[in-house]
Design brief:
Strand content: 15-25%
Length: about 70
């Protein structure tokens, strides 16, 4: 591995959206800096699965359900 070309790898503190914290190693910031997250696995719908709705524009959801009803997806 070549010397002098890699970023500094150090400990930082991470603050989740619920206020919990943990320490990890990263190239972000300076040693001891605090990274405050706006979105994390505890709050984002991609991980929590909550709050999403299907918007049926032009009957596309109904068309899908009709097409694949024998698979029991409804």
């Amino acid at each position: 591995m070549k010397r002098e070309i890699h970023p500094d790898y150090h400990d930082i503190n991470v603050v989740m959206t619920d206020g919990s914290t943990f320490t990890t190693r990263s190239t972000w910031g300076k040693p001891g800096d605090t990274l405050t997250l706006d979105v994390d696995p505890k709050s984002h719908p991609a991980w929590t699965g909550g709050g999403h709705r299907l918007v049926d524009t032009g009957g596309q959801v109904a068309k899908f359900n009709k097409r694949f009803k024998e698979f029991g997806l409804e």
